[in-house]
Every structure is written in structure tokens, then in C-alpha cells.
Amino acid sequence: MIKSKRRIYLREWIRYSKFAGTEGAREDKLVALSFDDGPHPDNTPRVIEILKENRIRATFFWIVENAINLSYSHPIIFKKILSEIKNNGYEVGLHAPNDLKPTIYSRFFGHFTKQELGEAKKKLETLTKTDVNLYRPHYLQLGSGIIHANQLGMTTVLGNLLKVVRPDGQIRSQVKTLSQAGAGNIIILHDGQNNQQGKNRILDVLPEGVRLLKNKGLKPTSVSKVLEN
Where in the sequence is the domain holding 30, given as residue range(s)? Predict the structure, then answer.
């Protein structure tokens, strides 16, 4: 029974998930930047400044609990983040209702119910005052969440699983990972967490990584742009 359900979820994982952009995005040399686990009071504003300096767009996949907490603990910062997102053409997608760590079971069969994801979507739309149409499962879990997201009108965006830039990786290797992305790729970065030293190396990686992408003739942008183009 478990093996049967796992095969079903694997099939749906492939059916409903987006790993890369369209042929048009590849022809236009678009590459998507996406940031997981936010919003963060320090990292997210700094990421936005880097994006603005480079005049590029991106997508943020937020954990709803983090967004709610930030709206209470740092209301001015949160409002500023929302303003920047609206004014600069960035977008927000759903990552998870909260930051619960996955179990072996949930990695294959899903961690959140359809009701939980639906409520999280509504809360995020209320907070951001925008429609939330994109979903990236927390820890890229294979399971029922992808089916639920489709039923809730969201597109599941996994991205290029070989192009994951983490907050605790070595700067040089992370820049290399980012710079090796190709046209149509959806790059996975993280702005919502820090390493054990309380730092997020994405802030060091992003400027150089973006420069190298541009040097290759690529155009960094949001997830929606590479999916619709």
C-alpha cells in the first residue's frame, strides 16, 4: 500500500511540478531567481537591495508563520518589504504554513493537509494583498501537498534541483553553483535562514553570481516570467 501511494505521488510530483522554464524562456535566455524560507528581517531587505541594484526581478517563497511573526515583531520592515515587492515587480509564493521539520514519512506522503495549505494561502494573500499562485513544497517534499496545491489553483515550482544555493555553503562553491545555471533554469536560493554564525552567505554569493549570469548573456527574472514566456 505504501509503495503504491509512493508511486502515485511520484507520478503527480512529475505531472504537476515545474522544474524549468518554457522553451521561450530558454530562447530569450531568461533564468529565474527564487528565495525560500523568508521573510527575514535582515536578509530579505538586503536581498531586495541587491536585486534593485542589478535591476532584476525574483520570486520569494514564504513560510506563512515567518511572515506573520515579522509583521508583528518588525512591522515597519515588513511593510517596507511588501512595498518593495509591489513596486519592483517581485512576487511571493507559498512555501509552507510553518517551519515544521519533515519526517521520513512526510517526505514521501506530504506534511500538510489541503485545508492547512488552503488556509496558509489565504493568510499569505491577506498579508501581501496579492494573489498567491505559486507553491514550492517545504524541503521539496514529495507527497500530497503537490496535489493539494493544484486543487487550490497553485502551480508547484520545484526548480533545478542541482542549482540549490544554501545559506551555509562555502562562498566560492556557491557562486560556482549559481553561475553554472543555464537559460530556463529556476535557481533555488535561501534568504530566510542563517548559519550557525548567524550569517547568510547568500548575501555574499548573490552579487557575484548575478554578475556572472549576466556575463553569460542570461537575464535573471522571476519564476512567473520563465514559466509564461
Answer: 2-228
Q: Is residue 60 within 8 Å of residue 91, measured between CB atoms?
A: yes
Nearest to 165 by CA among 10, 30, 76, 32: 32
Gap between the Cα atoms of 84 and 37, Å rounded:
18
Place of cell 494573489: 131
Residue 96 sits in a domain whose CATH number is 3.20.20.370
Going by DSSP bridges, is the β-strand pair 219-221/186-190 parallel, antiparallel, or unpaired?
unpaired
Pairing mode, strands 155-157 and 219-221: unpaired
Residues 79-99 pLDDT 10s: 999 999 999 999 999 999 998
- pLDDT, one tens digit per residue, over 166-188 is 777 788 888 988 889 999 999 99
Total structural domains in the chain?
A: 1
